[in-house]
Design goal:
3 helices; alpha+beta; MIP18-like; FSCA_dom_sf; 3 strands; three-stranded mixed sheet; single chain; 107 residues; GMP Synthetase, Chain A, domain 3
């Protein structure tokens, strides 16, 4: 019998990893900040993450996507990980979670 993978469980693990990565200018993790638009996991354990940056000229534009890719790849179940940057839609404070807004004194 073929074993099936639980892509939802792996997705949750990936989100936990993403919550350990912080924007260096804002003391909030990139997931709560709303920088992660989507996480795709297929049956071959290949992961694609669609994310944005706070601005196109973000000082960590070169390093942050690499950090995301490397940390997600470090999960045993993940075969490959790819990060795609998009600015459509552009990031705005409305994308932040309530937790992030509270942390930054915006509530």
């Amino acid at each position: 019998m073929e074993t099936s993978i639980d892509t939802n469980a792996l997705g949750e693990k990936i989100v936990r990893v993403l919550k350990t990565i912080y924007d260096p200018e804002i003391p909030v993790d990139i997931y709560e900040l709303g920088l992660i638009y989507d996480v795709f996991v297929n049956e071959d354990y290949e992961v694609k993450i669609l994310m944005t940056l706070t601005t196109p000229n973000c000082p960590v534009a070169e390093t942050l996507p690499l950090e995301v890719e490397e940390k997600v790849k470090s999960l045993d179940e993940v075969k490959t990980a790819e990060v795609e940057i998009t600015f459509d839609p552009p990031w705005s404070q409305e994308l932040m979670s309530e937790e992030a807004k509270l942390e930054l004194g915006m509530l």
